[in-house]
């Protein structure tokens, strides 16, 4: 019995040492992996007063994307923007503006997502009144001139038109905006300002007669 115990004890002790060594190795690897993930989540560079411009083939400005701060994250190769501002141009003149609290740019730069107090403004022209859209999330495809959201939107247009809906798709090239669900429209017919001047003028003419 003693001889059998003398043989088994070294084997048992070696097994315990092997298990302890394995446990230590796994623990170290897990800790290293956690630290590596934590480090990879850290940004590798950032810029302040960021601004990028894309031009058309003829040299005119297509759009300008700017932000107070731009931070790049190497883990997923994404870019985060603080206070982003997207300005679309037509004939080198700003035609619309999109701004918000935070922005994210995809790896290939083909998609820009803006969240937190998003405001879209179509600037007033000689033929079109000013229009504004408000939501809390908007995805922009700059090179396709498209934008969309599944979130609630509120649209106002001068002088007194208000539209509320859930979800919106906008295709600028084709000039089509599609509201997806629960569309409600409030419209007030504008009052002609010159109506009040008609009667006094008529009275003056009658007096001359």
Give an overview of the whole structure:
- This protein has 209 residues and is an alpha+beta fold.
- The chain has 2 domains: 1-40; 45-187, Lipopolysaccharide (LPS) transport protein A like domain (lipopolysaccharide transport protein A fold), CATH 2.60.450.10.
- Helix content is 25%, strand content 49%.
- The chain has 2 helices and 11 strands, in the order H-E-E-E-E-E-E-E-E-E-E-E-H.
- A 6-stranded antiparallel barrel has the order 2-3-6-7-5-4.
- It is globular.
- Mean pLDDT is 79; it is low at 196-209.
- Quick one: CATH superfamily of the largest domain? Lipopolysaccharide (LPS) transport protein A like domain
Radius of gyration: 32 Å
Strand order of the largest sheet: 2-3-6-7-5-4
Tell how many strands the DSSP assignment holds. Answer: 11
CATH topology title of the largest domain: lipopolysaccharide transport protein A fold
Helical amount among residues, as a percent range? 25-40%
- SS content category: alpha+beta
CATH level 1 class label of the largest domain: Mainly Beta
CATH architecture of the largest domain: Sandwich
| Count of structural domains | 2
Mean pLDDT: 79
* Biggest β-sheet strands, sense, barrel: 6 strands, antiparallel, barrel
End-to-end CA span: 143 Å
Parts with pLDDT < 50 across at least 5 consecutive residues? 196-209
Strand composition percent? over 45%
Quaternary structure: single chain
The 3D shape can be described as globular
| Secondary-structure element pattern, one letter each | HEEEEEEEEEEEH
Count of DSSP H/I helices = 2
Organism: Candidatus Methylopumilus planktonicus
Transmembrane segments: 7-24
Protein name: LPS export ABC transporter periplasmic protein LptC
Keywords: Cell inner membrane, Cell membrane, Membrane, Transmembrane, Transmembrane helix
């Amino acid at each position: 019995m003693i001889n059998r115990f003398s043989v088994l004890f070294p084997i048992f002790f070696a097994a315990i040492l092997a298990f302890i060594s394995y446990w230590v190795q796994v623990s170290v690897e897990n800790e290293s992996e956690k630290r590596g993930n934590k480090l990879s989540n850290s940004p590798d560079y950032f810029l302040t007063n960021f601004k990028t411009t894309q031009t058309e083939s003829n040299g005119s400005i297509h759009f300008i994307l700017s932000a107070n701060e731009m931070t790049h994250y190497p883990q997923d190769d994404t870019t985060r923007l603080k206070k982003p501002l997207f300005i679309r141009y037509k004939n080198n003149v700003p035609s619309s503006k999109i701004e918000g609290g935070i922005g994210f740019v995809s790896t290939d730069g083909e998609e820009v997502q803006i969240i937190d107090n998003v405001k879209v403004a179509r600037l007033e022209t000689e033929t079109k009144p000013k229009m504004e859209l408000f939501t809390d999330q908007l995805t922009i495809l700059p090179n396709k001139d498209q934008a969309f959201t599944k979130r609630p939107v509120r649209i106002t247009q001068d002088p007194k038109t208000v539209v509320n809906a859930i979800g919106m798709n906008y295709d600028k090239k084709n000039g089509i905006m599609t509201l997806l669900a629960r569309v409600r429209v409030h419209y007030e017919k504008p009052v002609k300002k010159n109506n009040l001047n008609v009667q006094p003028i008529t009275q003056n003419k009658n007096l001359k007669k």
